[in-house]
Amino acid sequence: TAGITQAPTSQILAAGRSMTLRCTQDMRHNAMYWYRQDLGLGLRLIHYSNTAGTTGKGEVPDGYSVSRANTDDFPLTLASAVPSQTSVYFCASSESGGSYGYTFGSGTRLTVV
Amino acid sequence: AQSVTQPDIHITVSEGASLELRCNYSYGATPYLFWYVQSPGQGLQLLLKYFSGDTLVQGIKGFEAEFKRSQSSFNLRKPSVHWSDAAEYFCAVGSPDYGGSQGNLIFGKGTKLSVKP
């Protein structure tokens, strides 16, 4: 089934450790996004990429980095995790910016202890 | 600043009753409007979207929404709710005119729907 694959599904991570959340799409969408979802705060944009080779900062980029080496993959890296990064992370993609709506992955639940 | 407000954090309705979830937006450009649904432990699924034209749009699962420019609203409705509709619902707004972000969507904080038997 076409869509977005996120891995891992869940993870417990020690504070100070690094981790990369993986996101792969098979729809050849140009734009990709990373959001975090926290209770009472809704979805907040971390980073985005409008096309392969370009990235931009969203609302809450601090502590996170991304790369977009090709169309299909958009990994999110936490260089040195902190407990406040405990959240559910969603990757999304869109054909052309966000104008036509997003397709979301199933999410990664990350707990930093 | 652009924003999306969903005034109701949690709504409970009886199965078979009608439903209306509210969404108000503040947006300088011509808005594109969306409703998403999130079942527990799942990602978000697109219910419907409005770009232009007829202000009443139909979506999946029997949902519809009406765009009212004068009220800056895009409320979601369903005539008869089913128990399987229990989920969280998110309104979102975007536009290709939105600065350098090229149409990144702005999401409301969501409304959780519970359905009583």
Describe this structure in words.
The complex is a heterodimer of chains A (113) and B (117). Chain A is mostly beta strands and 113 residues long. Chain A has no helices and eleven strands. In chain A, strand 4 (31-38) and strand 5 form a beta hairpin. Chain A starts with a strand and ends with a strand. The mean pLDDT of chain A is 93. By secondary structure, chain B is mainly β. Helices cover 0% and strands 50% of the residues of chain B. Chain B is built from no helices and twelve strands. Chain B has strands spanning 3-5, 10-14, 19-21, 24-26, 32-38, 44-50, 56-58, 64-68, 73-78, 87-94, 106-107, 111-116. In chain B, the strands form three sheets. In chain B, strands 2, 5, 6, 10, 11 and 12 form a six-stranded mixed beta sheet that branches. In chain B, strand 8 (64-68) and strand 9 form a beta hairpin.
